[in-house]
Specification:
It comes from Helianthus annuus (Common sunflower). GO terms for molecular function: protein serine/threonine kinase activity. It is a single-pass type I membrane protein. Keywords: Cell membrane, Glycoprotein, Kinase, Leucine-rich repeat, Membrane, Receptor, Repeat, Serine/threonine-protein kinase, Signal, Transferase, Transmembrane, Transmembrane helix. It is a single chain. This protein has a domain of 176 residues: Leucine-rich repeat, LRR (right-handed beta-alpha superhelix) (Alpha-Beta Horseshoe), CATH 3.80.10. The strands form three sheets. Strands 1-3-5-7-9-11-13-15-17-19-21-23 form a twelve-stranded parallel sheet, with no helix packed on it. The protein has a ten-stranded parallel sheet with strand order 6-8-10-12-14-16-18-20-22-24, with no helix packed on it. Strands 2-4 form a two-stranded parallel ribbon. It has 288 residues and is mainly β. The radius of gyration is 22 Å and the shape is elongated. The protein starts with a strand and ends in a 14-residue tail after the last strand. It is 0% helix and 29% strand.
Length: 288
Amino acid sequence: MMKIRLLVGFTGNIPATIMNCSNLQVLNLGNNNLVGKIPDAIGSLPMLSILALPSNILQGGIAPEIGRLFRLQELYLFNNTFTGNIPATLMNCSNLQILYLASNNLVGKIPDGIGSLSMLRMISLHDNSLQGRIPSEIGSLFRLQELWLYNNSFTGNIPATITNCSNLQILELGNNALAGKIPDGIGSLSMLRMISLHDNSLQGGIPSEIGCLFRLQELWLYNNSFTGNIPATITNCSNLQILQLGFNNLVGKIPDGIGSLSMLSILALHDNILQGGIPNEIGRLFRL
């Protein structure tokens, strides 16, 4: 047997005997009502490339034995009630492309060695209770396309090395306790479609180089302590649909050229110290 997919409302524990299926490549038990823990013997499935147990009621720690699955490419454990730390042994899964552990009760830090998982395309750890700094070695993940870390308790600065992730499309770090500035070089991430840094303690100016992000569709910077003007270069982001800059300390005027952002559907600049007139060209934003 190479694949097991059971998506029909099963209950009870994952049977330990399933670990006897030594040729199993895909184990997908998502969207059931399974309870209990991941069996300790999960590491005895050496051929496993996809382990998908999302949207169940599984609990306990994430089995460190998963780190023995050297062929594992995709790990989906989101939307359960897993507790404890992210096991450091996961850093042994050198072929891992998708790490999806969101919406659990995980604590502790992102493990040292995350930068060694050079095949990673997506890291999704949002909606947990993780803390500590975002590791600078994430900047080694050149294939990374999506980084979802919102709704945790991360502290410190956004690592400057993140600007090395040249394939990054989604940067979602909202609702943490991050401080400092948006890193210089953010404009070099030409594939970015979404930047979400809302509900942190970020400060300094909004970098003018954001105007180099021609694919940017969503910019969520509200509820921080940003200062200075709204950069005029932001009007170069012709695909921008959502511009959320409310609850900051921004000053000056709404930039000339705002009417050229014809894709805008949300423009939120409330609770700042902006002044001057409301530009007539806002009337050209028919999707607003």
